Amino acid sequence: MRVLLVCLAGLLVCLKTADSHSLPQKDYDTDSNKHDITDPLNDTSGNNSSSVPDNFSGIFDSSTTRFIARSVTRGGKKESMGIYAYKNGKLKMILEDSLAVSPWSSKSRAYLGNKDGIYVYDTETEKLEKYGNLSDNVIGIAKENRSDDLYILTEDHVVYKVTEEGTKKVKINEAEHVEKIALDWDDNLYYIGANDHPYVVTSDGAKKIEGLPVNSTRTFISRPPIKIEHGAWFMCEKQAYIIYPNATSEPYVFNDQEKLEHEKTVRALKTILSQVDNQPVE
To answer: Where is the composition biased (Polar residues) (predicted)?
Structure first.
């Protein structure tokens, strides 16, 4: 079994672009007989998510809460080993059967998807509570930037919009065979379909994103981790792209400052994940 470290912000292992602006090569894949680690970082430091972060500076402050979703793969199926909160150098399990955490949450609240619905975790009081009355098995979750409305992806690969404090859900019929979901800063909904290709949901239905490699694999989608006014972040075979609401895309080229921030991310990840494996859990 292998340990796979994936930065939720979208800077995947060995991330590189097609030219001289590629990020430094880093190999995070190491042999292990313990578990897979995915989605190590979500910033819920209480920053107002209505403003796009300029870069990664500050997300590794000691007062910031990060989340680590641990899983083990048995017989080709990923099984949850729980969501852990990491803050001030301490690790704490907060939800046993969860793999989904909403990125870039505001108001010091993080939303977690679980096999029996949605939970909310207050990073200041460190308290976990059931959110709303839904009982779906939630494997993906994303919060809108300008409201407290959520989008959830259920175990049967159906997407719903959740409103009214988690008590009402509406199926997004345009999204079919969904594997992963994400919102951009304008709250446009994107998803990766069963063919590992991204789509954007528009008023005219779901549109396939153009300009990307055919038969792509090892894909990842999220809000942009860098200051991009429109569009979502998409990773495909170690190449970063910005995908737009009009269903177009373009490769992203990293500047020198972003490379430096990536190195900070690498060091912080190594420190946190070392403690995950070597320190006792509270």
So the answer is: 41-50
Contact yes or no for 196/180 (Cβ under 8 A): no
Phi-psi region of 108 (alpha: psi -120 to 50; beta: other; left: phi over 0): left
Give tens-digit pLDDT for 12-33.
332 332 232 333 333 333 333 3
Helices (H) and strands (E) in the chain, counts: 1, 22
Residue matched to tokens 């990536």: 262
Q: Assess contact for 101 and 42: CB atoms under 8 A.
A: yes
Q: Which CATH number fits domain 2-278: 2.120.10, 1.25.40, 2.40.160, 3.30.310?
A: 2.120.10
pTM: 0.78
CB contact set of 259 (below 8 Å; sequence gap of 6+): 23, 24
